[in-house]
Every structure is written in structure tokens, then in C-alpha cells.
Predict the structure.
Amino acid sequence: MQNKRLFLIPVGLAAEDSGDWAGAHVRNAVLPLRRFVVEHAKSARQFLKMMGLPLQELEFEVLDEHSKAEDLDRLACWLESGDDVGLLSEAGCPAIADPGAALVSRAHRLGMRVIPLVGPSSIVLALMASGLNGQRFAFNGYLPQSPAERDVRIRELEERSRRLDQTEIFIEAPYRNDQLFKALTANCTSKAMLSLATDLTSPTEEIRTRSIGDWQQSPPPQLHKRPTVFLLLADQARSPNRRTRSANVH
Amino acid sequence: MQNKRLFLIPVGLAAEDSGDWAGAHVRNAVLPLRRFVVEHAKSARQFLKMMGLPLQELEFEVLDEHSKAEDLDRLACWLESGDDVGLLSEAGCPAIADPGAALVSRAHRLGMRVIPLVGPSSIVLALMASGLNGQRFAFNGYLPQSPAERDVRIRELEERSRRLDQTEIFIEAPYRNDQLFKALTANCTSKAMLSLATDLTSPTEEIRTRSIGDWQQSPPPQLHKRPTVFLLLADQARSPNRRTRSANVH
């Protein structure tokens, strides 16, 4: 008997996404599915309708930041109770920077086959386009909300980036982006590189990489309420030949 | 005058890739391009031919692990000397775990617009499918080659994973995968979770997540010469509600 499958289905990043990033591989995998675990019902329905699925035939279960351990137990039973299931995040790749990983973990324990589909990840798009170190990087989620703690954390991240020669990636609630930008220019040293990737995959996409010193001397970027990925790389003597063994996976 | 553009073009991961992960967005962006900087000429030609480009009209420049600072200077001049350019890695997303980031950095300094296209990243596919922590993770490239240093590094990574509640991602040259797997089962504690993502996007794709203890009691996985992403998460009391502020970017 073939193992039951959990498909990890990416959703577009932009509000006006047309799904034109999705190739036949994604479409063919998604079309036969009728059962979905979703982070956000509205955006999931919108996406699946765009992919050509018959909404009235679909079953939905929700897994979001409010879900508790007992919800996961129930979802695990539901996974086992019928056909293949698709998992969708609100936007981007499920199980990265969203609550989906707990369900994927359950699927492994149930012996299901987990199949990730190719789609947009704002973290990866931002890192590719930053020109910062793509051989070593860390995604840190959100920084602390309190300004004092946030400033300490920013200085820690720059120090760690210098020590590990590692790009530090983080995010903020879009309405607080401008404050985070100000805090970065106030707390980082002038030669540190800061990349901002805003409105990825949308017609208003903007991706800029500058030193903190250059950012301080430029008109401030307009980030308010625009989804933005922040990437920081501390200054160090860098050259393409410095590393003896560079990574070569993709 | 519109800024010149550098398109970051993902390439399929599997040897027998048909490009069916690429949607109209990727195809439409790639088709008009005639100038490319590539990591590996053969795989780039193969991919661009599959995308329908007329090979005899294309110009190629190589940027690989042997490229030096003066090669980058020359490439930067070449970027400026003509139309839009595409950057391709040997496989997967350019400028992540490959030498491309240095060119992207030059493009930013030249004031070019950098446009990342959506495609497969083995790191992201492996992380999505692992069920391990996708709220905080670090990509570490290769571990040291010497067995003694590698074992120390493995123990450091498990310790850091526990301290930061962070998934540690790394790779190995495929012909040494079996040794790395043995070293992981010998050096990590039995409750640490190890995920192996092998032959991603290929018909022989296998993705398994188990505790080190379970791996020790299972028949060893067949990883020899099969591209594999390794993901490690140390044991800790984890629940979906533990974190007060979970990341929600995609």
C-alpha cells in the first residue's frame, strides 16, 4: 500500500498574486487534492480557486498561531482519516516561519510521505538578491518589541555576524518597519551592510543593499506597512577566495 | 532611463529536471535574456535550451569557485557593457551556497536592479519538509573534513541548537554522506532530531525525520553519492504555544 502523502503547498507572497510563479509540477500536484490544512482560510481559498480547484468539494482545517497541542492531536487523526492532504501557509512556503512545522512533524511520526513543492520564500528571495553571504546565514524571526531589548539584540546580531561571517536575517511587523530601520542605523557600525527586500514578487518590489553609513546619508526608505525582510552582514575582510571550502548546495 | 537589471535565475535540482517547477513568470523573465553569468556552462546551457532560448545567440561568462577578485572586476564591467543579464547557479537558487553573491553585490554597487526569480532551493525544501523548527534556523555550509574537527563541530551545533532553539542545516560532498551520517549518530544525544532530505524534487526523493535514537535502531539510510541536506534540532520542551511571538513571514 502506498503511504498517504502530505503536500506542502506554497502560496504567493503578493496581495495581487496571479500564481504565475507556479509551474505544471505544482499545479498537477495540487489539482487532485480535496483536503487541506491552512493557516488562513480566506487566502487559501483564493489561491486554490486560482489553481482551478472546485471550492465546494474541498475540506478545510485550520492550523494557526492560536492552535494548541490538542488541536494538533485532532489534526493528526484527521490526516489519517482520508486521502492525501495539502498544507498551506498564509503566504509563502508552509512550515517556514509559520505554525505548520508541528503538523509536518506529526506526519513524519504517522509514516506519511511529506512532499515539498517549489514556490516563493521571501527569506530565500531576499537572501539571493541581497548579495550578502549566502554560504552561511541564520533566520531569526522577529527581534524583541521593547526598544531597549531590541537595540541590545541588534548589536548582538552584528557581533555574531562578524564572528561567524554569517548573514543575519530578521523581520518586523510591517507597521513597525520604519522604527526597526532607524534602530538599525542607530546601533550598527557604519561599515556593516544592510539589505532591505520590500514587496517581494510584487510590481512595487524594491531590494537595496547599502552600508549603514550609506543608508544614514540616503533619504530614508519607505517601508511603512510594506512587508520587508531585513538582512545584516557585519564588515570583515571578505573576498571570494577567502574561504577554503565554500558550500555548493542549492 | 530604466536601470539595467540582473535576473537571478534558479535551475532545477535533479539531473533529469524537466523545468516543470517553473511558471510563466520565470519563463517570461528568462526568454528575452541573451547574456548570462553562469557557475557551470554545461548545466546552464541545458537549462536555457529547455526554457526555449536560442543557444547560438547567447553570451556566457563564468563565475565559479575558482574566480578571483580581478575576474569579478571584469564581470562587473561586462554587466555594464550591454543589456540585462541573468545569473545562474549550477543548480538551485543563485547566490545561495554558491559563488554568485559577490556578483549580486557588485550589481547593487553599480545601481542595477536585482530581480530574484522563484525556483527550487534545496535548503528551503528540506527545511519545509523536515518538520523541524522553521521559526529559527541557520545554514552552515559544510562541516570540517577532518573527522576529529567534524565531531567537535557536530557537538557544538547540537549545543547551539539547544541554546537557540534553532534548526542547524548543513551539507556534505555526496560521496561522504554515509560517514557524516555515522558521525551524527555517534556524536548527538539520542533525543536530538535528525532530518535527511535526499534527491529533492527527483523521483527518488526521500525525506525522513527521526530522533538519533530511532536512526540508531533503523537500517542505515542509503545516502552514498545522493545529494542530501542534513538538518539537526536538539531536544527541548517544545510546543506550538511556547513562543510568545512567533515569526510570520514567508
